[in-house]
């Protein structure tokens, strides 16, 4: 494959799966400017890493998620985000393509609470929930995140339990 063919293949695959980059950047950004910077950084890292992509080992989307999430999580850790740091509020447009691409026309209180809950998660658990909401298999999620399926299942269970507790608490307090 010539260098030009290699570049064209990358551009085609990137274009086909570009929503992955935008979803990850949207979930790990504190502002629109941060999001734009993260999109560029993810794109650059994807290109730098593309020579090592092996289609016999993983689907392109799986590999792309892994690279994009690693860049986003690394950036969050580099900047040492604390719980006091605020992300841009998570809105429906950040997740509009998650779970089949349906845009939800009206946000009810439960959906708003879910977005707020996701916004409070640490970077790794944000990644986990993004993949979970996209109905990725446990095997694929574990491969993308670089953790065992057992660890993944435990984390998902804990997040669900925490979410149930918060949603129950919100209902009893009337929030």
UniProtKB/TrEMBL annotation:
Belongs to the sigma-70 factor family. ECF subfamily. Keywords: Sigma factor, Transcription, Transcription regulation. InterPro entries: RNA_pol_sigma-70-like (IPR039425), RNA_pol_sigma-70_dom (IPR014284), RNA_pol_sigma70_r2 (IPR007627), RNA_pol_sigma70_r4_t2 (IPR013249), RNA_pol_sigma_r2 (IPR013325), RNA_pol_sigma_r3/r4-like (IPR013324), WH-like_DNA-bd_sf (IPR036388). Residues 113-163 form the RNA polymerase sigma factor 70 region 4 type domain. One of its GO terms (biological process) is DNA-templated transcription initiation. The keyword Transcription applies. The keyword Transcription applies. This is Sigma-70 family RNA polymerase sigma factor.
């Amino acid at each position: 494959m010539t260098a030009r063919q290699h570049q064209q293949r990358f551009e085609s695959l990137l274009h086909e799966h570009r929503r992955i980059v935008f979803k990850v950047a949207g979930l790990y950004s504190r502002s629109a400017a941060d999001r734009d910077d993260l999109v560029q950084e993810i794109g650059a890292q994807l290109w730098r890493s593309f020579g090592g992509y092996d289609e016999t080992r993983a689907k392109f989307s799986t590999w792309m998620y892994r690279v994009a999430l690693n860049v986003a999580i690394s950036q969050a850790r580099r900047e040492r985000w604390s719980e006091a740091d605020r992300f841009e509020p998570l809105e429906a447009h950040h997740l509009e393509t998650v779970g089949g691409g349906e845009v939800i026309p009206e946000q009810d209180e439960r959906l708003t609470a879910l977005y707020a809950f996701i916004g409070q998660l640490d970077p790794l658990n944000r990644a986990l929930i993004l993949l979970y909401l996209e109905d990725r298999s446990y095997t694929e999620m574990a491969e993308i995140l670089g953790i065992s399926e057992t660890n993944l299942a435990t984390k998902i269970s804990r997040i669900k339990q925490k979410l149930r507790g918060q949603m129950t608490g919100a209902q009893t307090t009337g929030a």
